[in-house]
Design a protein that fits this description.
The protein is α/β, with parallel strands linked by helices. It has 2 domains: about 270 residues, 3-Layer(aba) Sandwich (Alkaline Phosphatase, subunit A), CATH 3.40.720; about 140 residues, no CATH class. Helices cover about 30% and strands about 20% of the residues. It is built from 12 helices and 15 strands. It has an 8-stranded mixed sheet with strand order 11-10-12-1-13-14-3-15, with helices on both faces. Strands 4, 5, 6, 7, 8 and 9 form a 6-stranded antiparallel sheet that branches. The radius of gyration is 23 Å and the shape is globular. Bound molecules: zinc ion. Zinc ion binds next to loops.
Length: about 425
Protein backbone atom coordinates (compact mmCIF):
# COMPACT_ATOMS: atom_id res chain seq x y z
CA UNK A 1 0.00 0.00 0.00
CA UNK A 2 1.21 3.46 -0.85
CA UNK A 3 1.52 5.99 1.97
CA UNK A 4 1.14 9.00 -0.27
CA UNK A 5 2.37 10.49 -3.49
CA UNK A 6 5.92 11.62 -4.04
CA UNK A 7 6.65 15.34 -4.00
CA UNK A 8 9.05 17.05 -6.41
CA UNK A 9 9.71 20.65 -5.39
CA UNK A 10 11.62 22.84 -7.85
CA UNK A 11 12.97 26.29 -6.95
CA UNK A 12 14.22 28.41 -9.85
CA UNK A 13 16.23 30.89 -7.79
CA UNK A 14 15.24 34.50 -8.40
CA UNK A 15 13.45 33.73 -11.71
CA UNK A 16 10.68 36.22 -10.85
CA UNK A 17 11.43 39.81 -11.77
CA UNK A 18 10.08 43.31 -12.28
CA UNK A 19 8.77 44.84 -15.52
CA UNK A 20 11.77 45.93 -17.58
CA UNK A 21 11.63 49.12 -19.72
CA UNK A 22 13.98 47.41 -22.21
CA UNK A 23 11.42 44.59 -22.58
CA UNK A 24 8.47 46.93 -23.20
CA UNK A 25 7.33 46.76 -19.58
CA UNK A 26 7.31 42.96 -19.46
CA UNK A 27 9.41 40.71 -17.24
CA UNK A 28 12.09 38.32 -18.57
CA UNK A 29 9.77 35.40 -17.71
CA UNK A 30 6.98 37.02 -19.75
CA UNK A 31 9.03 37.63 -22.90
CA UNK A 32 10.91 34.30 -22.82
CA UNK A 33 9.44 31.48 -24.91
CA UNK A 34 8.75 28.82 -22.27
CA UNK A 35 6.54 26.11 -23.81
CA UNK A 36 7.45 23.56 -21.13
CA UNK A 37 6.92 25.75 -18.08
CA UNK A 38 3.69 26.94 -19.72
CA UNK A 39 2.60 23.32 -20.26
CA UNK A 40 3.08 22.71 -16.53
CA UNK A 41 1.11 25.88 -15.70
CA UNK A 42 -1.66 24.74 -18.09
CA UNK A 43 -1.86 21.32 -16.42
CA UNK A 44 -1.69 22.72 -12.91
CA UNK A 45 -3.11 25.07 -10.34
CA UNK A 46 -1.27 28.39 -10.16
CA UNK A 47 -0.79 31.29 -7.85
CA UNK A 48 1.62 33.64 -6.16
CA UNK A 49 3.95 32.76 -3.31
CA UNK A 50 5.91 34.75 -0.79
CA UNK A 51 8.06 32.81 1.65
CA UNK A 52 7.35 35.19 4.57
CA UNK A 53 5.33 38.37 4.11
CA UNK A 54 4.59 40.56 1.08
CA UNK A 55 7.15 43.22 0.31
CA UNK A 56 10.05 41.74 2.22
CA UNK A 57 13.08 40.88 0.05
CA UNK A 58 14.34 37.44 1.11
CA UNK A 59 17.73 35.79 0.89
CA UNK A 60 18.01 32.29 -0.52
CA UNK A 61 18.65 30.51 2.78
CA UNK A 62 15.85 32.24 4.73
CA UNK A 63 13.35 31.73 1.90
CA UNK A 64 14.17 28.03 1.54
CA UNK A 65 14.05 27.53 5.33
CA UNK A 66 10.52 28.98 5.30
CA UNK A 67 9.44 27.11 2.14
CA UNK A 68 10.44 23.85 3.85
CA UNK A 69 7.83 24.82 6.44
CA UNK A 70 10.08 25.94 9.32
CA UNK A 71 9.05 29.04 11.31
CA UNK A 72 11.26 32.12 11.05
CA UNK A 73 11.81 32.08 14.86
CA UNK A 74 13.65 28.74 14.57
CA UNK A 75 16.14 29.96 11.96
CA UNK A 76 19.69 29.51 13.21
CA UNK A 77 21.24 31.98 10.72
CA UNK A 78 22.89 31.71 7.37
CA UNK A 79 26.50 31.07 8.46
CA UNK A 80 25.47 27.85 10.19
CA UNK A 81 24.16 26.57 6.84
CA UNK A 82 27.31 27.80 5.13
CA UNK A 83 29.56 25.93 7.61
CA UNK A 84 27.41 22.80 7.31
CA UNK A 85 27.46 23.00 3.49
CA UNK A 86 31.26 23.17 3.44
CA UNK A 87 31.57 20.40 6.02
CA UNK A 88 33.14 22.71 8.62
CA UNK A 89 32.44 21.21 12.06
CA UNK A 90 31.31 23.58 14.82
CA UNK A 91 29.85 23.29 18.28
CA UNK A 92 26.55 24.61 19.62
CA UNK A 93 28.54 26.95 21.92
CA UNK A 94 30.24 28.79 19.06
CA UNK A 95 29.08 31.75 16.99
CA UNK A 96 29.69 31.32 13.27
CA UNK A 97 30.26 34.11 10.73
CA UNK A 98 30.85 33.85 7.00
CA UNK A 99 34.07 35.66 6.03
CA UNK A 100 35.56 37.16 2.90
CA UNK A 101 38.73 39.07 2.19
CA UNK A 102 38.71 42.64 0.93
CA UNK A 103 41.13 45.40 0.01
CA UNK A 104 40.66 48.59 2.03
CA UNK A 105 42.38 51.99 2.29
CA UNK A 106 42.45 54.26 5.36
CA UNK A 107 40.37 57.39 4.83
CA UNK A 108 39.27 59.93 7.48
CA UNK A 109 39.46 57.47 10.38
CA UNK A 110 37.68 54.73 8.41
CA UNK A 111 38.78 51.76 6.34
CA UNK A 112 37.17 52.29 2.97
CA UNK A 113 36.55 49.27 0.77
CA UNK A 114 38.35 49.45 -2.58
CA UNK A 115 37.66 45.90 -3.71
CA UNK A 116 35.69 43.01 -2.21
CA UNK A 117 34.83 40.81 -5.20
CA UNK A 118 37.35 40.38 -8.04
CA UNK A 119 40.41 40.06 -5.84
CA UNK A 120 42.56 37.95 -8.16
CA UNK A 121 43.47 35.49 -5.40
CA UNK A 122 44.29 31.90 -6.31
CA UNK A 123 42.80 29.19 -4.09
CA UNK A 124 46.28 28.58 -2.70
CA UNK A 125 46.76 32.27 -1.85
CA UNK A 126 43.30 32.37 -0.25
CA UNK A 127 44.15 29.36 1.85
CA UNK A 128 47.55 30.76 2.93
CA UNK A 129 46.05 34.11 3.90
CA UNK A 130 43.30 32.42 5.91
CA UNK A 131 45.99 30.44 7.70
CA UNK A 132 47.80 33.69 8.56
CA UNK A 133 44.74 34.98 10.44
CA UNK A 134 43.23 31.65 11.42
CA UNK A 135 43.79 31.92 15.19
CA UNK A 136 43.44 34.87 17.55
CA UNK A 137 42.67 35.26 21.22
CA UNK A 138 41.18 38.35 22.86
CA UNK A 139 40.33 38.19 26.57
CA UNK A 140 38.15 35.07 26.95
CA UNK A 141 37.29 34.88 23.24
CA UNK A 142 38.99 32.61 20.72
CA UNK A 143 38.74 33.08 16.96
CA UNK A 144 39.25 30.33 14.38
CA UNK A 145 38.86 30.73 10.61
CA UNK A 146 38.51 27.82 8.19
CA UNK A 147 39.05 28.36 4.44
CA UNK A 148 36.15 27.32 2.16
CA UNK A 149 36.68 28.55 -1.42
CA UNK A 150 37.91 31.52 -3.50
CA UNK A 151 38.31 34.35 -0.95
CA UNK A 152 35.75 32.95 1.47
CA UNK A 153 35.91 31.23 4.84
CA UNK A 154 34.00 30.48 8.01
CA UNK A 155 34.87 32.12 11.35
CA UNK A 156 34.11 30.35 14.62
CA UNK A 157 34.06 32.43 17.81
CA UNK A 158 34.28 30.62 21.14
CA UNK A 159 33.85 32.08 24.64
CA UNK A 160 30.87 33.66 26.34
CA UNK A 161 29.54 34.57 22.89
CA UNK A 162 26.34 35.96 21.39
CA UNK A 163 25.20 35.92 17.76
CA UNK A 164 23.17 39.09 18.41
CA UNK A 165 25.75 41.25 16.63
CA UNK A 166 25.90 43.05 13.28
CA UNK A 167 27.90 42.41 10.09
CA UNK A 168 31.18 44.20 9.41
CA UNK A 169 30.86 43.70 5.63
CA UNK A 170 28.89 46.60 4.05
CA UNK A 171 28.48 44.47 0.88
CA UNK A 172 29.46 47.29 -1.52
CA UNK A 173 32.69 49.05 -2.45
CA UNK A 174 33.46 52.71 -1.60
CA UNK A 175 31.87 52.22 1.80
CA UNK A 176 33.68 51.94 5.14
CA UNK A 177 34.06 48.64 6.95
CA UNK A 178 31.31 48.64 9.57
CA UNK A 179 32.14 48.44 13.28
CA UNK A 180 30.41 45.37 14.70
CA UNK A 181 27.60 46.47 17.05
CA UNK A 182 25.66 44.51 19.67
CA UNK A 183 21.97 43.99 18.81
CA UNK A 184 20.86 43.83 22.43
CA UNK A 185 22.02 45.03 25.86
CA UNK A 186 23.37 41.70 27.03
CA UNK A 187 27.00 41.62 28.21
CA UNK A 188 27.57 38.67 25.83
CA UNK A 189 26.57 40.67 22.73
CA UNK A 190 28.54 43.76 23.85
CA UNK A 191 31.68 41.76 24.59
CA UNK A 192 31.41 39.62 21.44
CA UNK A 193 31.14 42.78 19.30
CA UNK A 194 34.13 44.35 21.07
CA UNK A 195 36.26 41.21 20.66
CA UNK A 196 35.31 40.78 17.01
CA UNK A 197 36.23 44.41 16.25
CA UNK A 198 39.65 43.80 17.85
CA UNK A 199 40.08 40.67 15.74
CA UNK A 200 39.14 42.48 12.49
CA UNK A 201 41.65 45.27 13.22
CA UNK A 202 44.29 42.61 13.90
CA UNK A 203 43.60 40.92 10.52
CA UNK A 204 44.20 44.34 8.88
CA UNK A 205 47.59 44.63 10.57
CA UNK A 206 48.57 41.07 9.68
CA UNK A 207 47.32 40.97 6.08
CA UNK A 208 48.84 44.37 5.20
CA UNK A 209 52.25 42.73 5.66
CA UNK A 210 51.43 39.72 3.52
CA UNK A 211 49.49 40.62 0.39
CA UNK A 212 49.04 43.59 -1.96
CA UNK A 213 45.67 42.15 -3.08
CA UNK A 214 43.77 41.99 0.22
CA UNK A 215 44.31 43.48 3.65
CA UNK A 216 41.29 42.77 5.84
CA UNK A 217 38.86 40.01 6.70
CA UNK A 218 35.16 40.95 6.68
CA UNK A 219 32.40 39.12 8.55
CA UNK A 220 28.69 38.68 7.94
CA UNK A 221 25.57 36.68 8.91
CA UNK A 222 26.44 35.82 12.57
CA UNK A 223 24.65 32.61 13.54
CA UNK A 224 24.65 29.76 16.00
CA UNK A 225 23.17 26.30 16.21
CA UNK A 226 19.48 26.14 17.12
CA UNK A 227 17.70 22.83 17.36
CA UNK A 228 15.06 22.18 14.66
CA UNK A 229 12.70 19.25 14.22
CA UNK A 230 14.30 16.96 11.64
CA UNK A 231 12.50 16.95 8.26
CA UNK A 232 11.70 13.22 8.45
CA UNK A 233 10.17 13.62 11.90
CA UNK A 234 8.22 16.75 10.95
CA UNK A 235 6.73 15.36 7.75
CA UNK A 236 7.18 11.58 7.90
CA UNK A 237 9.00 11.86 4.57
CA UNK A 238 12.47 10.78 3.49
CA UNK A 239 13.83 13.91 1.80
CA UNK A 240 16.62 14.80 -0.60
CA UNK A 241 17.75 18.23 -1.82
CA UNK A 242 19.78 18.69 -5.02
CA UNK A 243 21.43 22.12 -5.34
CA UNK A 244 24.64 23.59 -6.75
CA UNK A 245 24.88 26.03 -3.83
CA UNK A 246 26.70 24.95 -0.68
CA UNK A 247 24.45 27.02 1.55
CA UNK A 248 21.37 25.13 0.29
CA UNK A 249 23.22 21.81 0.64
CA UNK A 250 24.05 22.91 4.20
CA UNK A 251 20.46 23.94 4.97
CA UNK A 252 19.12 20.58 3.75
CA UNK A 253 21.72 18.69 5.79
CA UNK A 254 20.93 20.84 8.83
CA UNK A 255 17.23 19.91 8.51
CA UNK A 256 18.18 16.24 8.30
CA UNK A 257 17.56 15.76 4.58
CA UNK A 258 20.09 14.11 2.31
CA UNK A 259 21.91 16.65 0.15
CA UNK A 260 23.58 16.33 -3.25
CA UNK A 261 25.69 19.04 -4.85
CA UNK A 262 24.27 19.44 -8.38
CA UNK A 263 27.66 20.51 -9.81
CA UNK A 264 28.78 16.91 -9.35
CA UNK A 265 25.89 15.59 -11.48
CA UNK A 266 26.37 17.93 -14.38
CA UNK A 267 27.86 17.07 -17.77
CA UNK A 268 30.22 19.42 -19.60
CA UNK A 269 27.34 21.06 -21.50
CA UNK A 270 26.21 22.66 -18.26
CA UNK A 271 22.58 21.51 -18.39
CA UNK A 272 22.53 21.47 -14.61
CA UNK A 273 18.74 21.56 -14.15
CA UNK A 274 18.23 18.67 -16.56
CA UNK A 275 20.94 16.69 -14.75
CA UNK A 276 19.32 17.45 -11.38
CA UNK A 277 15.85 16.48 -12.64
CA UNK A 278 17.23 13.26 -14.14
CA UNK A 279 18.76 12.49 -10.77
CA UNK A 280 15.48 13.25 -8.96
CA UNK A 281 13.51 10.99 -11.34
CA UNK A 282 16.04 8.19 -10.85
CA UNK A 283 16.02 8.60 -7.06
CA UNK A 284 12.21 8.35 -7.00
CA UNK A 285 12.39 5.14 -9.00
CA UNK A 286 15.33 3.45 -7.31
CA UNK A 287 15.42 4.75 -3.74
CA UNK A 288 13.01 5.27 -0.91
CA UNK A 289 12.62 9.06 -1.27
CA UNK A 290 9.21 10.68 -0.73
CA UNK A 291 10.36 14.26 -1.30
CA UNK A 292 13.02 15.63 -3.63
CA UNK A 293 13.93 19.30 -3.85
CA UNK A 294 15.74 20.57 -6.98
CA UNK A 295 17.32 24.03 -6.92
CA UNK A 296 18.62 25.95 -9.96
CA UNK A 297 20.71 28.99 -9.00
CA UNK A 298 21.34 30.36 -12.51
CA UNK A 299 18.38 32.80 -12.81
CA UNK A 300 19.52 34.61 -9.65
CA UNK A 301 23.14 34.81 -10.78
CA UNK A 302 22.25 36.28 -14.18
CA UNK A 303 19.78 38.74 -12.60
CA UNK A 304 22.67 40.40 -10.78
CA UNK A 305 24.27 41.21 -14.15
CA UNK A 306 21.34 43.61 -14.75
CA UNK A 307 20.55 42.51 -18.30
CA UNK A 308 16.86 41.50 -18.64
CA UNK A 309 17.37 40.20 -22.21
CA UNK A 310 20.17 37.89 -21.09
CA UNK A 311 17.94 36.66 -18.27
CA UNK A 312 15.13 35.94 -20.74
CA UNK A 313 17.59 33.95 -22.92
CA UNK A 314 18.69 31.91 -19.89
CA UNK A 315 15.05 31.26 -18.95
CA UNK A 316 14.51 29.76 -22.43
CA UNK A 317 17.48 27.42 -21.82
CA UNK A 318 16.06 26.46 -18.41
CA UNK A 319 12.69 25.81 -20.02
CA UNK A 320 14.32 23.46 -22.52
CA UNK A 321 15.97 21.57 -19.65
CA UNK A 322 12.70 21.23 -17.74
CA UNK A 323 11.19 19.46 -20.75
CA UNK A 324 12.45 16.12 -19.42
CA UNK A 325 9.98 16.41 -16.58
CA UNK A 326 6.93 16.49 -18.88
CA UNK A 327 7.70 13.08 -20.38
CA UNK A 328 8.30 11.53 -16.94
CA UNK A 329 5.40 12.95 -14.92
CA UNK A 330 3.69 10.18 -12.98
CA UNK A 331 0.19 10.01 -11.50
CA UNK A 332 1.60 9.47 -8.05
CA UNK A 333 3.74 12.62 -8.12
CA UNK A 334 2.96 16.14 -6.99
CA UNK A 335 5.23 18.65 -8.70
CA UNK A 336 5.66 22.27 -7.64
CA UNK A 337 7.65 24.85 -9.62
CA UNK A 338 8.37 28.24 -8.09
CA UNK A 339 11.13 30.61 -6.97
CA UNK A 340 12.54 31.35 -3.53
CA UNK A 341 12.27 35.12 -4.11
CA UNK A 342 12.25 37.68 -6.93
CA UNK A 343 15.57 39.05 -8.16
CA UNK A 344 15.37 42.22 -10.26
CA UNK A 345 17.46 42.25 -13.42
CA UNK A 346 16.29 45.82 -13.98
CA UNK A 347 18.46 48.71 -12.84
CA UNK A 348 16.89 50.62 -9.98
CA UNK A 349 17.99 53.76 -8.19
CA UNK A 350 18.74 51.91 -4.97
CA UNK A 351 20.88 48.93 -4.08
CA UNK A 352 18.18 46.25 -4.27
CA UNK A 353 19.63 42.75 -4.52
CA UNK A 354 16.41 40.79 -4.22
CA UNK A 355 12.87 42.15 -4.27
CA UNK A 356 9.85 41.63 -2.03
CA UNK A 357 7.23 40.90 -4.70
CA UNK A 358 5.57 37.48 -4.63
CA UNK A 359 6.72 34.88 -7.18
CA UNK A 360 4.72 32.61 -9.49
CA UNK A 361 3.97 29.05 -8.38
CA UNK A 362 2.54 26.12 -10.34
CA UNK A 363 1.49 22.82 -8.75
CA UNK A 364 0.76 19.77 -10.91
CA UNK A 365 -0.89 16.63 -9.53
CA UNK A 366 -3.99 14.50 -9.97
CA UNK A 367 -5.99 16.28 -7.24
CA UNK A 368 -5.34 19.90 -8.21
CA UNK A 369 -8.20 21.99 -9.53
CA UNK A 370 -6.75 22.99 -12.90
CA UNK A 371 -7.28 26.71 -13.49
CA UNK A 372 -7.32 28.96 -16.56
CA UNK A 373 -3.65 30.01 -16.33
CA UNK A 374 -1.69 29.02 -19.44
CA UNK A 375 1.62 30.76 -18.75
CA UNK A 376 4.17 30.51 -15.99
CA UNK A 377 4.81 34.18 -15.27
CA UNK A 378 4.45 36.81 -12.57
CA UNK A 379 1.39 38.40 -14.25
CA UNK A 380 -0.42 35.31 -15.57
CA UNK A 381 -0.39 33.49 -12.22
CA UNK A 382 -2.25 36.39 -10.56
CA UNK A 383 -5.39 34.78 -12.05
CA UNK A 384 -4.54 31.34 -10.63
CA UNK A 385 -6.63 29.16 -8.36
CA UNK A 386 -4.15 29.12 -5.50
CA UNK A 387 -4.31 32.88 -5.02
CA UNK A 388 -1.66 34.33 -2.73
CA UNK A 389 0.06 31.77 -0.50
CA UNK A 390 2.96 31.96 1.95
CA UNK A 391 5.91 29.79 2.92
CA UNK A 392 4.07 28.50 5.99
CA UNK A 393 1.31 27.11 3.71
CA UNK A 394 3.38 25.45 1.04
CA UNK A 395 4.40 22.13 2.63
CA UNK A 396 0.84 21.58 3.89
CA UNK A 397 -0.57 22.29 0.41
CA UNK A 398 1.88 19.84 -1.19
CA UNK A 399 1.39 17.19 1.51
CA UNK A 400 -2.39 17.52 1.15
CA UNK A 401 -2.27 17.02 -2.64
CA UNK A 402 0.08 14.09 -1.97
CA UNK A 403 -2.51 12.46 0.36
CA UNK A 404 -0.01 12.50 3.18
CA UNK A 405 -1.81 14.45 5.91
CA UNK A 406 -3.91 13.05 8.71
CA UNK A 407 -6.75 15.22 10.04
CA UNK A 408 -5.79 18.15 12.25
CA UNK A 409 -5.35 16.79 15.77
CA UNK A 410 -4.87 13.12 14.81
CA UNK A 411 -1.74 11.79 16.48
CA UNK A 412 -0.17 8.78 14.78
CA UNK A 413 3.32 9.81 15.79
CA UNK A 414 4.91 11.41 18.83
CA UNK A 415 5.52 14.69 17.01
CA UNK A 416 4.66 17.97 18.65
CA UNK A 417 2.58 19.46 15.82
CA UNK A 418 -1.09 19.23 15.00
CA UNK A 419 -1.00 18.05 11.39
CA UNK A 420 0.84 14.79 11.09
CA UNK A 421 1.51 12.39 8.26
CA UNK A 422 1.55 8.62 8.37
CA UNK A 423 4.57 6.63 7.29
CA UNK A 424 5.04 3.07 8.52
CA UNK A 425 8.70 3.60 9.31
CA UNK A 426 8.00 6.58 11.54
CA UNK A 427 4.97 5.18 13.33
CA UNK A 428 5.74 3.09 16.42
CA UNK A 429 3.81 -0.20 16.36
CA UNK A 430 2.33 -1.68 19.54
CA UNK A 431 3.89 -5.08 20.15
CA UNK A 432 1.54 -7.94 21.04
CA UNK A 433 1.43 -8.98 24.71
ZN1 LIG B 1 17.72 32.76 -3.96
Amino acid sequence: MSWGKKILFITLDGIADRPAPTLGGKTPLEVAKTPNLDALATRGINGRLHSLSLGIPMSTDVAHFLLFGYPIEERPGRSVFEATGYGVPFSADEVICATSFALVAPESHTLKIINRRELGLTAQEGKQLVEAVSYYKYKEFEFNVVYTKKHFGVLKIAGDVSDRITDSDPFYTNLPVIAVQPLDDSPQATKTAEALNEYLRWTYTMLNKLSPKVNILLTKWPARHRPVMPFAEKYGMHGLSISPKEIVNGLATYLGMDALNAEKLCSSEGRILEASLNCAIEKFQTEDYDFVHVHDLRPDVISHKKDPKAKAALIEKIDDEIKILLSHLKEDWVVAVTADHATPSTVGVGKAMHAGEPVPITIVGTHVLVDEVKKFSERATVQGGLGQIYGKDLMNILMNYADRLGNFGFRPRAVAQDTASYRPKTVKPLPPP
